[in-house]
Write a structure and sequence with these properties.
Elements (H helix, E strand, L loop, with lengths): L7 H10 L2 E5 L8 H11 L3 E5 L7 E2 L2 E2 L13 E4 L6 H9 L7 E4 L6 H9 L3 E3 L4 H8 L2
Parallel strand pairs: 1-2, 1-5, 5-6, 6-7
Antiparallel strand pairs: 3-4
Helix pairs in contact: 1-5, 3-4
Length: about 140
């Protein structure tokens, strides 16, 4: 897939079909974008599970933080990646090792690795890169 642009219907389809989102790189700091996006997604009715090894066992926005994706009880529909591009291959590795794969890997603004995306897509996972669901949701009215 060409990740330079996305059809609005593709993005809206993802945002209306996912309900349970793992947010990697979640921060308890309200000044951090991951914190604001997590709060926004929760306010829109999504279940958001924060993932951050340094915060494991604590809470962000009232949600228990997990160290790794594999530690989350039950499957997730989407993994939202708030990590630098250099870590996207590692996140994809972690996703591909899960017993039940998510439908989507969504990486935030500025986060892109086409080779990592191709590996996820080869496993049947949809990929969105360099976009923010908190921007796309109101834009698409999804």
């Amino acid at each position: 897939m060409n990740h330079d642009s996305y059809d609005d219907a593709y993005l809206a389809g993802i945002l209306t079909s996912v309900r349970r989102i793992a947010l990697t790189g979640a921060s308890p700091n309200p000044a951090r974008p991951s914190n604001g996006v997590m709060g926004y997604l929760l306010s829109r009715g999504y279940e958001v599970i924060p993932v951050n090894p340094g915060q494991a066992g604590k809470q962000i926005h009232g949600q228990t933080v997990y160290a790794r994706l594999a530690d989350i009880p039950g499957p997730v529909d989407m993994v939202d990646v708030f990590r630098a591009s250099e870590y996207l291959p590692q996140v994809v590795d972690e996703v591909l090792a899960l017993e039940i794969l998510p439908k989507v890997i969504w990486s935030q603004l500025g986060v892109r690795d086409d080779a990592a995306a191709a590996r996820a897509e080869a496993a049947g996972i949809k990929v969105v890169m360099n976009r923010c669901p908190a921007i796309e949701l109101p834009r698409l009215a999804a």
